[in-house]
Amino acid sequence: MKVAKFGGSSLADAFQIKKVCDIVLSDPEKRIVVVSAPGKRTKDDIKVTDLLIAVAKARLAGNDYEKEIKAVIERFNSITSDLNISDVLPEIENTLRTTASASYTNDVKYLDSVKAMGEDCCARLVAKYLNSIDVPAEYCNPKEKGLFLKHDANGKAVILNESYANLSSLATSDKICIFPGFYGYSKEGEIITFSRGGSDITGSILAGAVKADVYENWTDVDNVFAVDPRLVNNPFPITEITYDEMRELAYAGFNVLHEEALYPVFVRGIPVHIKNTNNPSSSGTKIVSKRTHYDSLVTGIAGESGFCTVTINKYLMNRQIGFVMNLLKIFSDEGISIEHMPSGIDSITFIIRKKNFTEEKQDRVLKKIYSEMNVDSVSVERDLAIVMIVGQAMANSVGIMARAASALGNAGINLKIVNQGASEISMMFGVSEAYCKYAVRVLYKELFRY
Predict the structure, then answer these.
(1) How far apart are CA 172 and CA 269, in angstroms?
(2) 169: how many CB neighbours lie within 10 A of its CB?
(3) Collapsed DSSP state (helix, strand, coil) of residue 259
(4) pLDDT at 293 (0 to 100)
(5) Which residues contact 31 (CB under 8 A, 6 or more apart)?
(6) Are 443 and 298 in contact (CB under 8 A)?
(7) pLDDT for 296
(8) What are the strands of the beta sheet with 30-35, ordered from one edge?
(9) Which of 88, 99, 172, 294 gives 128 a disulfide partner, CB atoms 3.0 to 4.6 angstroms apart?
């Protein structure tokens, strides 16, 4: 059995939806299909999710939202009309209006419920289209099928373990299941959404629940590339990559899959296959537990801004038992996650995301460090970017670090931090935010020799 998830660009209009259905019907093993909300038809178009956000914001502001909701309905009308399934439009309109007009006590929960209707209505119309061409298919409501979520301490949506047992029944259905991505329900019956792009997570959860042989993730590119194609022309295509490599690259802004989407399939050893809806014959990119071949020494390079460093200096720090543990508690008490922690004999640097380290939190943290830890000095730098070089083959190779550091130095890029991952499949460089994209280009030129 295969679970296939299709992104918004694959479902943007009737023509694309027909492509999706052709792909599904070409392989009898594709029994579960996860759909996103319709995306952009052209560069200047508006995604359905953004149209729905406009509806919710208008209502939350106390304004009439008829204009905004009509824009959503018209978008679905265009699709259903072109697919010759206009009889499903009243159901879609009723779903949209009922959700948009529902009473609410929490603005965020209301916004979530409205946003989720893009995926929900798309699933309804895809199932209807398949039925119209005599293919047994079923719209699968996440609540009825048992996809239950909750919010963790940080407000992030996480799955309840019982959901996997609930969803496993999808494997025995005699109909193709069309499942809306991006959202599930609390045990109390409220809609909970994943973060933007969360349909990837839904697909991964379903693949894990039914113990799929493959989780296919269909998008609008032939491959995952070794570097962001917006930074380099015709970047090197990746045909195979491990879960660990993908996770390392995703950390530094390698936005192929949602960063949380790999875990449900990773723990079950289910491979992921990235494919192109517009070119289904392309071999695509496979994400696997263990690679069978290597196309290059380095798998990928990625960079992301938005980090900062807190460096603590204390003479004989290494001899003070519990020093680092007590430092970590100060950050933990403020709800701050530590991303990296390079250290020396008398100093340690915490790398954290700037968005989680506000000026107010910085003031409180520094006061606690000085008052509780008796340190010599503390310094904060708030304009850091992280650039990652990732490749499983690097663990058995010599000279990659030297080549990378030399290339960056020759390009006039000052290295503020250099750190190699414990698994030896990644190298991290800290540079000023202004040099982030430039550093990625320099490293790609050096390590891929274009």
Answers:
(1) 21
(2) 12
(3) coil
(4) 80
(5) 1, 2, 3, 170, 171, 173, 176, 177
(6) no
(7) 84
(8) 137-139, 176-180, 30-35, 2-6, 214-219, 272-276, 285-288, 240-242
(9) 88
CB-CB contact of 96 with 69 (8 Å):
yes
Nearest to 163 by CA among 177, 176, 150: 150
| Residue 298 exposure: Cα atoms within 13 Å on the Cβ side | 27
Tokens encoding 17:
């939806």
Place of tokens 């939350």: 60
Tokens for 22, please give them: 């052709």
Which residue matches tokens 């509780």? 372
- The yes-or-no verdict on residue 294 having pLDDT over 90 is no
Q: What is the pLDDT of residues 231-287, one digit of tens each?
A: 998 899 999 999 888 888 877 777 777 767 888 999 999 999 999 999 999 999 999
pLDDT score at 450? 55
- Spell out the SS3 assignment of 107-170: HHHHHHHHHCHHHHHHHHHHHHHHHHCCCCEEECCHHHHCCEEEECCCCCEEECCHHHHHHHHH
CA atoms within 13 A on the CB side of 190: 15
CA distance readout (Å), 28 to 24, 176, 377? 8, 10, 65
Length of the chain: 450
Nearest to 272 by CA among 282, 262, 281: 262
pTM equals 0.86
Spatial distance between the Cα atoms of 191 and 153, rounded to a whole number of angstroms: 18
CA dihedral (420, 426, 432, 433) positive or negative: negative
pLDDT of residue 422: 65
| Whole-number average pLDDT of the chain | 92
Residue 419 forms beta bridges with which residues? Answer: 428
Q: How far is CA 54 from the centre of its chain?
A: 23
What is the average per-residue pLDDT within 83-93? 96
Q: Which residue in 411, 418, 421 sits closest to 441, CA to CA?
A: 411
Measuring CA to CA, which residue among 12, 127, 27 is closest to residue 78?
12
Under 8 Å between Cβ of 300 and 243: no
Q: In a 3-state reduction of DSSP, which class is residue 346?
A: coil
SS3 call for 422: coil
The answer on pLDDT for 20 being more than 80 is: yes
Residue whose pair of structure tokens reads 């039914």 in the numeric block:
210
* Distance in angstroms (rounded) separating the CA atoms of residues 10 and 276: 9
SS3 221: coil
Collapsing DSSP states into helix, strand and coil, what is residue 297?
coil
d(CA 99, CA 116): 10
Q: Are 300 and 249 in contact (CB under 8 A)?
A: yes
pLDDT, tens only, 154-202: 778 899 999 999 999 999 999 999 999 999 999 999 999 998 778 999 9
